[in-house]
Amino acid sequence: MLSNQFVLSFFLLLCLPIVFFLVAPHVFPPPPRESLIPISDEIDDQILFRRASTGSSSHLSSGTPHPKLKIAFLFLTNSDLHFAPIWDRFFSGHPQSLYNVYVHADPFVNITRPANGSVFHNTFIASAKRTSRASPTLISATRRLFATALLDDPANAYFAVLSQHCIPLHSFRFVYRSLFESPSFDKSNPDPTSRGIRIWYRSFIELISDEPRLWKRYIARGRYAMLPEVPFEKFRVGSHFFVMTRRHALLTVKDRILWRKFKLPCYRSDECYPEEHYFPTLMNIKDPEGCTGYTLTRVNWTGTVKGHPYTYKPKDVSSHLIHHLRLSNHTSSYFFARKFMPTCLKPLLSIADSVIFRD
Fold it and tell me: β-strand 291-293 against 203-206: which pairing, if any?
């Protein structure tokens, strides 16, 4: 009898670690984990962001557009800029008093800079750090681009975030006039002047609240990790490629509170795309009325593979495709599109003047 009790007690004692291993994750909250951002990068970023926050104006001129108002084109890349030739043609013939270009290139990747004569030749920012997909490093990279553009030129009024896989769908003239001059481009603006020029500029960024996997994205870092700063009802998702006003770009580099949440690593990597969560959530909390709720970059999510959108191949490129990609459910046409294979450059250049830039 005593022998049986001893065997049973010994068996239960052996089972305890197994039971604890299976039950503990559901009973006890997971231990806090450190950010994936190296502390040295954080320090460098904070110095840069503080300079941009204190040395930049958030004012976006209103009324009659001044010729010195500019669009800052911000490119995120971890490979060669294969579509530089088509972007060079996009900017060709337009004075640089209307635009600036900035490139955040991963310094740990061997990237060939476009040759002298390309608009991209001297646009790689010095503050660039390592980046990786589906990580908070992409948030940091975008904020570095904002900070650099804010400090570099007070005339930068709109900030367009793009990738190396993006192409233009319209001419530069169309893009510039739509953003600053057109009375019909953003009809959601309630206050156009009698001269047909918008006096209230908004950011073109998605603030999606009905995405089917929204809850799983929200708890990717842990069920309570985002609280209390980001309650679920304030959490939003959207494309990482958007056009933001100077005021909102400045608001982004000033943020410290939400960044502490979104830089935390995820427990569910399949639901963790921080760059698609941070910017929409920040805008939704800080100034939802100052955002249109939609983006100007077209992405085809049909046939998604491991979180990547459909990638266009050379055989897909045609005038019909360009016209189709421009179509939007909103009053505004799409300006840009992704994602294109590098081998699409030649067929795109062949229809650049006759289709893409003919609007």
Answer: parallel
Is 181 a domain residue? Answer: yes
Q: Domain total for the chain? A: 1
SS3 string, the chain, reads CHHHHHHHHHHHHHHHHHHHHHHHHHHCCCCCCCCCCCHHHHHHHHHHHHHHHHHCCCCCCCCCCCCCCEEEEEEEECCCCCCHHHHHHHHCCCCHHHEEEEEEECCCCCCCCCCECECCCCCECCCCCCCCCCCCHHHHHHHHHHHHHHHHCCCEEEEEEEECCCEECCCHHHHHHHHHCCCCCCCCCCCECCCCCECCCCEEEECECCCCCHHHHHCCCCCCCCCCCCCHHHCCECCCCCEEEHHHHHHHHHCCHHHHHHCCCCCCHHHCCHHHHHHHHHHHHHCHHHEEECCCEEECCCCCECCECCCECHHHCCHHHHHHHHCCCCCCCCCEEECECHHHHHHHHHCHHHHHCCC
Please give the structure tokens belonging to residue 160: 């367009």
Rg of the Cα atoms in the chain: 24
pLDDT at 271 exceeding the cut of 80: yes
Q: Structural domain of residue 69, as residue ranges?
A: 39-299
In a domain, 354, yes or no: no
In the block, which residue shows the tokens 């698609």? 276
The reply to whether 31 falls in a domain is no
Burial of 340 (0-12, 13-18, 19+ CB in 10 A): buried
The tokens of 84 are what? Answer: 């530089």
Residue 354 CA, chain-centre distance (Å), reads: 30
Torsion over CA: 198, 204, 210, 216 (sign): negative
Q: Cis link prior to 339 (omega < 30° from 0)?
A: yes
Per residue in 316-327, pLDDT (tens digit) is 999 999 999 999
- What pLDDT, on the 0 to 100 scale, is given for residue 61? 53
pLDDT over threshold 90, residue 169: yes
Residue 72: φ, ψ to 5°: -95, 120
**Predicted TM-score of the model (pTM):** 0.87
Does residue 332 fall inside a structural domain? no
Question: Does residue 63 have a pLDDT over 80?
Answer: no
